[in-house]
Amino acid sequence: MCFLTVSTRPLLPPKDNIYPVLDQYLPPLREGDVIFITSKIIAIHQGRCIPMEKVKDKDELIKKEADVFIPREDVPGNYVVLTIKESTLIPTAGIDESNSNGYYILWPKNSSQVAKQICRYLQKKYKIKKLAVIITDSHTEPMRYGVIGVSIGFFGLEPLLDRRGQPDIFGRKLKITRSNIVDSLSVMAVLLMGEGAEQTPMVILRGANFIKFTDKHTYKKLIIPPQEDIYYPLLKRFYVHK
Fold first, then answer.
1. Which of 15, 87, 98, 156 is the most interior residue, by most CB within 10 Å?
2. What's the pTM value of the predicted model, to 2 decimals?
3. Phi, psi of 184 (to 5 degrees)
4. In 3-state terms, what secondary structure has residue 14?
């Protein structure tokens, strides 16, 4: 398989239409392609941008956007409000100031639904059936420096590769192992997109023959209810502030 980067013009806050950008900059797509799109340009497409001068208290905006949060004063260094939004652990509810031209760019709404709309548009345009669209962002991992990619919405593929019941190299059957395909691939896509002035908001994955394509919404298959998560003893502090 291979990853192909797609450079584009800047999408401009407070609102800019993504579809002409898809038409102008995407190369011809093929059966079995997966398109990764950064959440920032989806948010700009939706007009999810607020002028910074109109926000009196950024922390209040963050708390409003977050599902649950730990306040800044409880975070080492007081650097961020730590939040969970749409089942993703992410600082500041995903609100972004980089490459924003004086706006706070919020997370997109209904990312999986937007992914479906874009997927259907591209399937029709290129007359293909097997196609998936993944909306990505970057976030930090506990106990690790640096950011990595994560999916925040997708359509067109099964997110998990179920290995339960398969034998390991010594014949022992796996009991709980499922490979998270959608986030694993998002890590590489976000790395290739970059975090600065690259103007590479899209990446195409081609030739990944282990992906199972589908016409159904599958995002919920990826999500663990908080109380069932093995990390809930650590995460439950978020819910104190709910």
1. 156
2. 0.94
3. -60, -45
4. coil
